[in-house]
Every structure is written in C-alpha cells, then in structure tokens.
UniProtKB/TrEMBL annotation:
Name under which the protein is recorded: Transglycosylase SLT domain-containing protein
PROSITE patterns recorded: TRANSGLYCOSYLASE (PS00922)
Coiled-coil stretches: none
Protein family (similarity comment): Belongs to the transglycosylase Slt family.
BP terms from Gene Ontology: peptidoglycan metabolic process
Residues in the signal sequence: none
Organism: Vibrio agarilyticus
Domain Transglycosylase SLT: 345-467
Cited Pfam families: SLT
Length: 512
C-alpha cells in the first residue's frame, strides 16, 4: 500500500513541477511579447519625434537646393541667408544685397554685361530690409563673374556649414528626449540620432557631388572662359578643395565615433562600417557609411537630373560691388527695443539679463526675423522641435512643437529662449555646483545640448551629464572653460561660447 501512496506522491509532485514549469514558460513568453510590443511602441514614438525635425530640415534643404543652381548660373556662387547675414536677390537675379548685421555692413552687387553698363551703373539708394542705404560716394570693385574652382569650393563649404549645424541640432534634439525621462531607453534614442546623422552626411556628399558636376559642366563648355588663368590661383583652389574634403571627412569620423554613448554598441557599428568600407566605391551608396575619399568624385554620382544643361548658363559677365557701412549704432538700436522684455523674463526665470542679451546678440544680432540653417527662428534662435517643444511641454503643458509664426514674435521668442536657459540651469545642469562653471556649460549647452557638454568631460565620451558633473565639480571655472574649448565636438560651439562669454560684459549694469 505504501508503494501506491509513494507512486501517487511522485505523480502529484511531477505534475506540480510540470505545471510550475509551464506557467513559468508562459510568464516568460508574455514578458517577451510585452517587451517586443513595448520596443515597437518605443520605435514608433521615436520615429514620430525624429520625423518632425526631419520634416523641418528637408523642407529647408530642398528649397535651398532648388534655387541654388539658378543663382550660381548668374553669379558664380550662391550665397544663402544665415541667422546673422541676410541675402536677397532681385526677381531677375541681376542685383544682390548682403547685409551682415553682426559686423554692421552691407555689400550691394549688380550684374553688368559690358563696360558701358558699368559706367552707366549709377545707383543712388537701395533698400536692405528696413534700412535704406546710400551708395553715393561708396567705394566699389569690379570683377568678372567666375565659375572657378575657388567659387566651387566656397559653395561646398556653404553646404558643409549647413550640415554641421544640422548634426549639432540632432544632438540637442536627442538630449531633449533623453533628459525628458520619456521612458524610452537612451540607447534607442542615440541609435536613432546616429542613423539620422549618417543619412544627413550621405545626403551632404550627394549635394556636394551635384555642385561639382554642375560647375564642371559649365567649365567644360567650349564657349566658357573662366577668366582665371593664374596657375598659382588654381593651386590655391586645389588646396582649399583639400580643406573642404578633410572637413567633411572629419565630421563623418566624429559622428561614427561619438554619436553612441555605449562602447559595445559603438564597437559593433564601427566594425560594421569598416567592413562596408572595404567594398565602397561610389558616393551614391547612401545606405552604407563609407569613408570620404574625395568630395569631388563626380564620376561616382549618378547622372543628376537637376543639373541644368550647359546651354542655360549665360556667358560670364561683370560684377560691380559696393561695400557700405550700416547706419551708426544700428545694432544698439535694435537691442534697445527688447531691453524691457528681457528684464521682465530675467526676473521671471531667474536668468541674468546680460546673459540673455549676449545670447541674442550672438544668435541673431537682435533680428526678430532671423532664420538659420538648422532651421532655428527669431531673436534667440529657437528650434520648434527641440527647445520650443521642451518649453511648450514644461511651461505651457502642451506636448507639441512651437509654431514658426509664434517664434517670429519677439515676446514669445524671448520668453521661450529664457525659459529654456532656466531648464538648462535648474534641471539639466543643476548638479554643477560652481555658478561660473555652470554658466560656461549652460552657454555651450544652449548651442549644442547638454549631452555634448558631458562628452567634453567624460573620459568614455558618454552623454551622462550627472557623471560629467562629478568631474566638473573638481575643476576650477577657468579649467572648465578651457576643457570646453578644447573638447566640444563642433567648432561652431567653441566659437559660440567665446562670443557669448565675451559679450556678457557689454550688457551688464547700466549698459543694458
């Protein structure tokens, strides 16, 4: 009988064990399914936010590229407006006004066909935005419009500057998502930002390839005369081309090596990239991340439909250019208009008014209608989908980007920019103890994001700002400033920190 009880006990035990294992397996399956679903939700959420920024960027770049070749065909190079420089062509592309609001001067240029047109070109006054400029008595220079290698390289550098600004903004955008405690793993966000950077870099290479092909097609026209026959000039142009090539290569290398904070993920991606590079021969392979051997490799770019036929390019003509100083104290007068609003927001958000003014000076030269390559808008150059969204969500309790129209409103823009400085000061960078050290980090973070500030101090180049704060708190403010200048990933941000820091004193005390 005891054998029957023993057998029954063993059966019950084995059944319970089997049942326990089955439920355990079921729980594991549910957990796996739940994680898979959650991961998919994360990706959908990330795609939505990154696509918002990408929509802004693509619209801006497409509009820029669409007009670029038309302008090049008449001027030899197409200048574009930035947050500090306004460029305007007339409807026929025969006159151009470039206003440098930061350095307070303008150049006014006219296309003329022959010497008679030059002698007849007696323009009295022109409009530059709200400013009327008198050209009477102004010095001028006459040049032949050129499609030289030097002008080609200048056009490429414009694209590279646009690209660097857009890569920088992706860092800021990713930081906002990481530091907002959305629940999305940081590795997901950084990987998505990294992939988007690679797309932007490959897009820049294709855009540069189109520029090369366009200029080459003009120079190869038998009827075209460049007007540049000096061998030394050609040598200088080739040297500048090498600089352009290295700049794009450096940007790509930095992106590959520093975009992801987790070493194991970086190693996997770099290994994958290196493997792909072995077989890369063409710039057109956008899906691979190849090293840039030549930004001029026109042969590697497929036939470009957008390149107009050579016949559409007019014969080179002359360019007469006047340089005119803006009216005295133009910048100071613009600054005065916003003094009262700045003081109001300074008290509201506990941010030094002199800092706000120095940032506005550096970001837009106090121009309410300023727009950058990012694109960012208005007096404090707010990006709708990053700082604009951050302030909307944390201050206005609205979970969506700010509208462009709102950011062109000086009242809204100053409020938004100052509120974002408060978020940086009291939230993202709050663990930095020394006020002066935190100020330097805040200025840099306003331009490039808290993550890139952290990278400047963390030995593993991670974006962990709490970890960086431990290092920062052991350094003197002067050493913090020096480290930022040496280690920040973008030259633009290094220059920005220097400019803003040096301009704070201009607006302190009674001078504001």
């Amino acid at each position: 009988m005891k054998y029957i009880y023993l057998s029954l006990a063993l059966y019950i035990f084995s059944f319970n064990l089997y049942s326990s294992d089955s439920f355990s397996l079921l729980d594991d399956e549910v957990k796996k399914q739940s994680f898979s679903e959650k991961k998919e939700e994360f990706h959908q959420w990330l795609n939505k936010y990154f696509d918002e920024y990408e929509a802004w960027r693509e619209t801006y770049v497409n509009e820029l590229d669409e007009s670029r070749e038309k302008i090049i065909s008449k001027w030899g190079v197409a200048h574009a407006s930035t947050e500090l420089i306004d460029v305007n062509y007339d409807s026929e592309n025969d006159s151009r006004v470039i206003v440098d609001y930061e350095n307070e001067y303008a150049t006014v240029s006219f296309r003329v066909s022959n010497e008679r047109d030059i002698s007849d070109n007696k323009i009295g006054k022109v409009k530059a935005g709200e400013i009327e400029l008198s050209l009477e008595g102004s010095d001028f220079v006459i040049d032949e419009i050129s499609f030289s290698k030097e002008n080609e390289e200048e056009q490429k550098r414009i694209i590279i500057n646009e690209t660097e600004a857009q890569l920088n903004e992706l860092d800021v955008f990713a930081d906002r998502l990481v530091l907002s405690n959305t629940g999305v793993p940081e590795s997901f966000i950084r990987k998505r930002a990294h992939d988007k950077k690679i797309e932007i870099l490959n897009g820049a290479k294709i855009r540069i390839g189109k520029v090369s092909e366009y200029y080459s097609s003009i120079r190869n026209d038998s009827n075209f005369s460049d007007g540049v026959k000096n061998e030394n000039h050609i040598l200088i142009s080739e040297n500048k081309e090498n600089i352009t090539q290295r700049k794009l290569s450096d940007m790509q290398e930095k992106t590959i090596k520093s975009s992801l904070p987790l070493p194991e993920e970086k190693n996997l991606i770099i290994a994958s990239i290196d493997k792909k590079n072995e077989s890369v021969e063409s710039v057109e392979s956008v899906e691979s991340v190849e090293s840039v051997e030549s930004v001029e490799s026109v042969e590697s770019v497929e036939s470009v439909e957008s390149v107009e036929s050579v016949e559409s390019v007019e014969e080179p003509s002359f360019l007469i250019t006047y340089k005119v100083k803006l009216p005295n104290n133009s910048l100071k007068k613009r600054a005065e208009k916003y003094k009262q609003k700045v003081e109001l927001e300074s008290k509201r958000w506990n941010i030094d008014a002199a800092l706000i003014m120095a940032i506005m000076h550096s970001e837009s030269a106090f121009r309410a209608d300023a727009k950058s390559h990012v694109p960012a808008f208005g007096l404090m150059q707010v990006v709708p989908t990053s700082a604009g969204h951050d302030v909307n969500r944390q201050v206005h309790k609205i979970d969506k980007p700010m509208s462009i129209d709102a950011l062109y409103n000086p009242e809204v823009n100053i409020e938004t920019g100052t509120a974002y400085l408060n978020i940086l000061d009291n939230r993202y960078l709050s663990k930095i103890e020394n006020q002066e050290s935190r100020l330097y980090c805040m200025i840099a973070a306003y331009n490039t994001g808290a993550g890139n500030v952290a990278r400047s101090f963390n030995s593993d180049r991670s974006t962990n700002i709490s970890k960086a704060a431990v290092v920062i708190n052991k350094l003197s403010p002067d050493k913090v400033y020096e480290t930022l200048i040496n280690n920040l990933p973008y030259d633009e941000t290094k220059g920005y920190l220097k400019k803003v820091n040096s301009r704070i004193s201009l607006y302190q005390g009674s001078t504001i």
